[in-house]
What we know:
By secondary structure, this protein is an all-alpha fold. It is built from four helices and no strands. α1 (about 5-35) packs antiparallel against α2 (about 45-70). The two termini are about 40 Å apart.
Amino acid sequence: MTYDQLIQLQGWAALFLLLCLGAGAIHLLTGLIRPAWVKRAGRGGVALVTLAIWLAGIAVWGGTIGYTHSHPEGPHSLHRYLDDYFAEQCAQGADIPACRKAEVAPSAEQPPSP
């Protein structure tokens, strides 16, 4: 997945979370007024179903955030943070193995030596 697709996925997950929170709130308010309107026997059942709706939204949202953050092209991936950190350290002249690997790696633009 590309960076833009991962950002879009996060947006859809946030929208799903908002829909679940809204649907759960409507279910809770309606069920507390009259449990029969939401086909529940009592207020405890209304509260449990509302909690399940909210938890489903939070689980989908949290799972999506976890997935996009663990993806190498993700918006807040550890890989991206480490690459940026090492690039900054190498630009400042640090003597670390990541800088030495970048210096030794042959460039695709350089012709082979005769």
